[in-house]
Amino acid sequence: MDVIQQNIGKIKCPLGGEKVYKDECAYSFDNPESENGLYICMNTFLGLGKSHVERHWKKTGNQVYLNLKRRRIEIPKDDQPPEKKPTKMAIGVEGGFHVDDKSYRFEEETSIVVLPNWTVIPFPNTELPDLVQLSAATILTAEDAWKMEEAAAMACTWEGEKLRVSKHADNLKQLDNGKKIPPKGWKCERCDLTTNLWLNLTDGSILCGRKFFDGSGGNNHAVEAYEQTRFPLAVKLGTITAAGGDVYSYDEDEMVEDPHLAKHLAHFGINIAALKKTDKSMVELEIDLNQKIGEWDVIQESGSKLQPLYGPGFTGMRNLGNSCYMNSVMQVVFTIPDFQNKYSNKVEEIFNNCNNNPPDNFNVQMAKLGHGLLSGDYSKPPIEQQDSYIQPPTGIRPQMFKSLIGRGHPEFASKRQQDAQEYFLHLISTIEKSSRGQANPTDCFRFEVEERTECCQSKKVQYKRREDYCLSLPVPLEAVTNKEEAAAYEEKKKELQASGKTVDPKDIVRRKLSLNACIESFASPGFVEDFYSSAIQAKTTAQLQTRLASFPDYLLVHLQKFTVDETWTPLKLDMSVDVPDVIDISHLRGKGLQTGEEELPEVQAAPPQVNIDESVVNQLVEMGFDREGCRKAVYNTQNQGVEAAMNWVMEHMGDPDFTVPLQLPGSTSNKTFVPNDEALTMIMAMGFTRDQSIKALKATDNNIERAANWIFSHADELDEPMETENTDSTSNPQQKKFRDGNGKYQLVAFISHMGTSTSVGHYVCHIYKDGQWAIFNDEKVAKSEKPPRDLAYLYLYKRI
Fold this sequence. Notes:
CATH superfamily of the largest domain: Cysteine proteinases
Domain USP: 315-800
GO biological process, one term: proteolysis
Helix content: 25-40%
Enzyme class: hydrolase
CATH architecture of the largest domain: Alpha-Beta Complex
CATH class of the largest domain: Alpha Beta
Oligomer: single chain
Distance between the termini: 65 Å
CATH topology of the largest domain: Cathepsin B, Chain A
Structural class: alpha+beta
Mean pLDDT: 82
Radius of gyration: 30 Å
Number of strands: 27
Number of domains: 4
Keywords: Hydrolase, Metal-binding, Protease, Repeat, Thiol protease, Ubl conjugation pathway, Zinc, Zinc-finger
């Protein structure tokens, strides 16, 4: 025990809220189930794989580690708990889709290890000093750091969130029409449907609900009734119990809570205490729809016997509760040499240069992820197990990375399903912040967009340039090639619905079009209404044409499949897109100002401007629309409210410049920024300098709330010099260099989404490696037999 006594001064107990990393190495994906287990520093409480322990000792001087080994023991089938049916549209969370195997239990072995001689002392051991015993015991009983962080992040997300109380609940109008609802025998009052029925809490009408994406559901009669009567609240019949029921607010366009539901139902003679649940809730219906045959099976290649793939570059990623969007994006970006050279080949270098806590160091976690995916250390063929031991699952569990990149973000910190394209842009932004002054792997995606605007009256033009990382293409329904067949399918679907039947997913007919049609739609000129022309000093119509001023090494193509229907309900276009292996977009090359073209003059005086109601903007953004497009909607409708702004969005969401930042009439990008004095004082009162406060206000158009959020999320940018006034960073191509080359590209990967919207469903990616297509479905990696490229959402092309 002398070696322990020599180090007793460096041994601590995690009693003061310190983070204990006992589930995974900070620098690799070694864990207690690895061959050598996990070594936990008894001073810093950092978990380490065996290959990193000596480096950590030499860097910190800490010699004593708690070694934790864990093995899986098979549980006989008769002793296994029954599998629970999912009750939430989620993966890997309580009540969600089943991901963990419950056919095993864990057996643990612990010991104290002292460097440099790797002296092993069994634990528990009463001969150890009390401090060492207490330290080891508290480490073993402490909650792992990532679980604590996840719990904190989830505290304000949907997993623990109650439905909002409807604004109509307290003062709901109920008609004294003498209507009494019988306990059974319900039927829609406008058709013959007897399922998916909703009782309006104002007039007592019983009507069927919305149609679902597969043709099932109702005939929209409850929605139509609301549009006629404006009676806002309805409860789904069959879901009512003493605990409540599914209540929907058509006015608020969401599921809500009605604390007075018992009273409202009693008005129509319904005794809530006597009712039992007889129909599926909205969550259960969504789960059923997503478990049906169709898009899910096609994209996951469920009909094929797929051959598993192992080794470097074929490592799967565990789903950490609807993290499939992250898994797919990270698998794809780490196929690119720029990312491999920046991160996966620099583990030791980044280790040596890391002076802060590695779980909080973005470069460390990116290097760890890259090495985990590409080394092959965590992707080995299964071996035959002896006795009752079970081999641990293959693949990696990127918990530290997910916690770090989602930290502080209202969506990516949660377990809600997210949009893969939005996550990709978030990843790009995070990498750029961490790569200042260093090689930036995102340069391979970055390209310059040229926008040419021509005033339809004066014929004068304006050229602007901006950077982008993703080519977002519209999905032109007018270019569908099987219109007659699709129309016949829609008629058949209506007939089945009228008879209360649903469409067999095997008979679904998807609309077909080509990727080239999407590219041509992007290239076609569009019109901008209410364009302020400095040539005529008035609003007019302008023609907008978008081109690419540079072609990146890797082109990420995004198909705009997500939209809204006439009732403002988000939906996904069920399309089959003919996607070629090779595309040539050379014709999209921008040429700049041409001979004979005359530029629009700079604005001399600004006309009256309208303040933008950010509360209305936020309501529209919550519906899933782009913020800049929502700001334009509120501005162009003169702050007349959500309904007017939504109508504008529906009319203009297809405009080429819908997502381009709003430039108010009369304003110019080279106009000197003047901060709002009151807002500036408030930001400076938080402890920031005048220059830092001005930078935040400039970045957020003098919006005090957005500036406060911006300043905390851009801490690494605060002390950088501000751009010189009278300089337009978006129109000056000399400020940033863009990689460029020919416009011919080869398809190398694609990401597919299964489900009705970005907030539900599942993501899978396919990658072309070693002369074959491989499917990456979370931790499952296999040779692809039928790559479903026609149903994908994001496509990665490499310049030839």
